[in-house]
């Protein structure tokens, strides 16, 4: 099935914000997190930026591959906002095409390519040197739609309780609950 942007999805260019303040990818409360900022694009696409910090190194002066995979995963995950669906990564296949030095801004783009039942197929690229620069990383992913109970059931009690008693967090979770 062709992916369809939800009618109440954020408008193209709109900053999506963090789905959870403690998220390693997008949360503001993680000092060594990615602080990735994603914006809605046209159709079922997003764009995002992430600047590699010293805490993200693998080899000296270079981004760790797992951190780059996290940036791709987070960008792909933010497509949830456009579908207004809650989905988690089932599979993430990553190509590392060029090394990414510390201090580099990665310009990411992601798109939902197909949907089948609970399955959401998507693809992402990360470019360096500018939004039109060479591709440094890319990924193909399969996300699976889940109910909000997925997190309540599997998450550690402490964080779940804190999230459920935070009205801002409850409001953010509700933004995903309206399905097409
Ligand atoms: C509050 C706001 C929060 C908003 C939250 C937003 C968070 C975004 C964060 C960024 C994204 C992440 O990192 S999310 C975190 C990382 N991911 C996770 O923790 C997920 C851990 N895995 C799981 O919980 C589970 O495996 C699921 C939910 C993914 C799937 O389990 P399930 O629901 O029981 O489904 P299951 O029956 O196994 O599979 C359904 C169909 O998908 C296929 N399938 C399943 N896994 C795979 C796979 N790896 N590769 C190929 N195909 C697969 C199956 O073959 C099947 O196909 P068929 O037989 O039907 O054809």
TrEMBL record:
It comes from the Bacteria. One of its GO terms (molecular function) is hydrolase activity. One of its GO terms (biological process) is fatty acid metabolic process. Residues 61-121 form the Thioesterase domain. It catalyses: dodecanoyl-CoA + H2O = dodecanoate + CoA + H(+); (9Z)-octadecenoyl-CoA + H2O = (9Z)-octadecenoate + CoA + H(+); decanoyl-CoA + H2O = decanoate + CoA + H(+); tetradecanoyl-CoA + H2O = tetradecanoate + CoA + H(+). It is an enzyme of class 3 (hydrolase). Keywords: Apoptosis, Cell membrane, Cell projection, Cytoplasm, Fatty acid metabolism, Hydrolase, Lipid metabolism, Membrane, Transit peptide. It is a peripheral membrane protein. Coiled coil: none annotated. Pfam families: 4HBT. It is found in: Cell projection, Ruffle membrane; Cytoplasm; Membrane. GO terms for cellular component: cytoplasm; membrane. Its EC number is 3.1.2.2. Belongs to the THEM4/THEM5 thioesterase family. This is Acyl-coenzyme A thioesterase THEM4. It comes from Streptomyces aurantiogriseus.
